[in-house]
Structures are given as structure tokens and as C-alpha cells.
Design goal:
heterodimer; A: mainly alpha; 11 helices; about 80% helix; B: about 130 residues
């Protein structure tokens, strides 16, 4: 992850004013440090992280409006950086910054209240959560190879990327729940992922093969 | 059949993008780097195990494949895939549906904002040219 962290941090440093949410933690960063020094117990942090991540995934309308702003900026940033069009990037960041506030001022205030109390680890994890996304080019290629047709419209790419990201979140959360049940710790192992996949299938969240099984 | 073809074609494309390593060993998958960040963001270790990432990659590709095949079955009448097919398929899954609609509306707003920006840019250019000429 060290290799990927440098461009990651560089990207973060290059484009700080992505949204009011991410600009606000900068003045709040000064208050974060004394808080993280005072809170030394780690188990509590991990629980908070998991709860907040559950909330992030389950609170659809509130955080998704902000999530989409950040993730779309990030996706656009990735594509634009590949194309070396930095000027357009800044303009899009400024324009996007206006949208989340126009939507839900209540939820914005809630989010900022939560964000101001994040520790550094929580903040970096939250930042990864917001910024991570599938590359449009890779997704387009994959979709074209699945459908067999060459033209995949951009809204389809965007929609499938969003669906896939939420799906990854569901699987990872289920895997973490399984690890808690088995009282294991550390990185997620493939056996957890397989068990999580099996449970999601039982719940019906994963599509079953529609090919008729009558005449196998 | 089309599943395996899609899988192998995507993997060979990933392999061809990195010609320095032998293609038989280079099975990093389609979404290796992004998945690492994503899994960390959703609760995994800052350094997820490579086997976990590879398995997650397969799971996601299989999910997307199933999704697209189902969408094709639904939208086959139109002959072309459209976004509404996907929205119909995930209608019962509230987080995914809301996320999708938010993303698509954001895209629309971005498009309009970009159009406005270009329009203003052109107007500015025209006024400057008029001033320069006059």
C-alpha cells in the first residue's frame, strides 16, 4: 500500500477544496489532535468505526448525496489527471462544493459534528471510503466485454460503479461481522469473504443464475 | 460460455497492460488497486491480504456479470442496454437504489454546470474579441 499511498496523499494535498465537508476538517484538524491524544483505547475506536461505517452505508439519502459529490469528484479527478486537465478540475470542485449544502443543511450539520470528532485513523479510513471507486475505463472495458457490444454509455458506467461499490461494502461488512462472531482479528481472510458471500446469497442480495435448471 | 469468455478476456487485457511480467503469473485482476482502497475504507486492514483482494475481485466481477446478463434479459426488447434496466433490477435494494439515483442526478447536474461554464466562457471570449476589434 506504500506505493499507492504516495499518489493518494499527493492527490489529497493537491485538491483540498473538494467540498465543504472536506474543507471543514482542516480547521478541525487542530482540534482532532488533542482529542486523539486523550482517547487511547483502541477497541472503542474500532467499534466506532464500524458503527459509523454501518451508518454510512445504511443512511442512504443523507450521506449518499455527499458521498456522490466526493466520489464523482474523485472519479473525475482521476480521469482528468490522466488527461492532464487540471484547470477544469478546480472549476468542477468549486461547482460541486455548492451542491451538497443546497440539499440537506440538517444532515450537513450532523455530518460535520461527527467528522469533527474523528481520530486520525478514522479520518483516513473515512477518506478512503469516500475516495475509493472503480476506474471508469476499467469498468467500461469490463462491461463491453460482458455485453459484447462496444458502446457503453457513461450513465451505465456510473450506475454500475456505484452499485458495485455498495456491494463491496456489504460483503466487507458481513465479513467483519463474521470475524466478530468467530472472535478473530486482523486482516480479512478469504474464508471470511466466502462465508459472507454465502450469507448474502441466502439473504437474496446476490442474483441467482436465471438459467433454467430444469433440464440440466 | 460468455462468462468464461468475459473473464478470460478481461484477465488477458489486464495482463497485456503489464508486459514486463509473464502473463501466466500476472493475474492481478481487473480492480486490484481500487479494491485495496475500497476494502480499507469499508473496514478492512490498511493492507488487505492479496488473496482477499483477488477473491473480492472475482466476487465483484461475477456480481457485475450476473447483473449485466439480467439487465440484458430485461432490456433485450430494446436491443440496447439502458440505465433503467439496472435501476429496475436493484429496485428492492434500498442502499444501492438510492446511491444510484444520487450518482445519476449528480452526473446530470455536473453536465449542466459544465455546459453553463462553457457557454459563459464563449460569451466572455466574444465580448473580449468585440472590445479588441472596437
Amino acid at each position: 500500500m506504500k506505493q499507492s499511498k504516495d499518489p493518494f496523499e499527493a492527490a489529497f494535498e493537491e485538491s483540498p477544496p473538494e467540498s465543504p465537508i472536506e474543507t471543514e476538517p482542516d480547521p478541525d484538524a487542530d482540534t482532532e489532535i488533542p482529542i486523539s491524544n486523550s482517547l487511547n483505547s483502541q477497541p472503542i475506536h474500532t467499534n466506532e468505526e464500524e458503527e459509523e461505517e454501518d451508518n454510512h452505508v445504511k443512511n442512504t439519502s443523507s450521506t449518499t448525496s455527499i458521498n456522490t459529490a466526493i466520489t464523482t469528484t474523485k472519479n473525475n479527478n482521476n480521469n482528468n489527471k490522466d488527461d492532464e486537465e487540471d484547470e477544469e478540475e478546480d472549476n468542477m470542485d468549486v461547482e460541486l462544493a455548492k451542491f451538497p449544502t443546497a440539499g440537506d443543511p440538517h444532515k450537513m450539520a450532523k455530518m460535520q459534528a461527527i467528522l469533527s470528532q474523528f481520530t486520525e485513523e478514522q479520518m483516513s479510513r473515512y477518506e478512503s471510503f469516500r475516495r475509493a471507486g472503480f476506474q471508469k475505463a476499467n469498468m467500461k472495458r469490463l462491461l463491453a466485454s460482458i455485453t459484447g457490444s462496444q458502446k457503453i454509455s457513461i450513465p451505465i458506467t456510473i450506475a454500475v460503479s456505484g452499485i458495485a461499490k455498495v456491494f463491496v461494502g456489504e460483503v466487507v461488512e458481513a465479513a467483519r461481522t463474521i470475524m466478530k462472531e468467530r472472535k478473530e482479528s486482523g486482516p480479512i481472510r478469504p474464508c471470511h469473504l466466502r462465508e459472507a458471500h454465502r450469507r448474502l446469497k441466502l439473504e437474496g442480495k446476490i442474483f441467482k443464475r436465471t438459467t433454467s435448471r430444469l433440464f440440466r | 460460455m460468455s462468462n468464461s469468455a468475459a473473464g478470460t478476456s478481461s484477465k488477458t487485457r489486464a495482463a497485456s497492460s503489464q508486459p514486463s511480467e509473464p502473463s501466466s503469473k500476472r493475474r492481478r485482476g481487473v480492480f486490484h488497486r481500487e479494491l485495496q482502497h475500497m476494502m480499507y475504507g469499508f473496514g478492512d486492514d490498511p493492507n488487505p491480504l492479496p488473496e482477499s483482494v483477488a477473491l473480492m475481485d472475482d466476487i465483484v466481477v461475477e456480481y457485475i456479470t450476473e447483473l449485466v446478463h439480467k439487465a440484458q434479459d430485461i432490456g433485450s426488447q430494446r436491443g440496447k442496454l439502458s440505465v433503467e434496466d439496472f435501476l429496475y433490477l436493484i429496485r428492492k435494494d434500498a442502499p444501492k437504489l438510492n446511491r444510484c439515483t444520487e450518482l445519476l442526478s449528480m452526473n446530470e447536474e455536473l453536465k449542466q454546470a459544465r455546459k453553463l461554464f462553457e457557454h459563459d466562457d464563449e460569451n466572455l471570449r466574444k465580448t473580449f474579441e468585440d472590445d479588441a476589434d472596437g
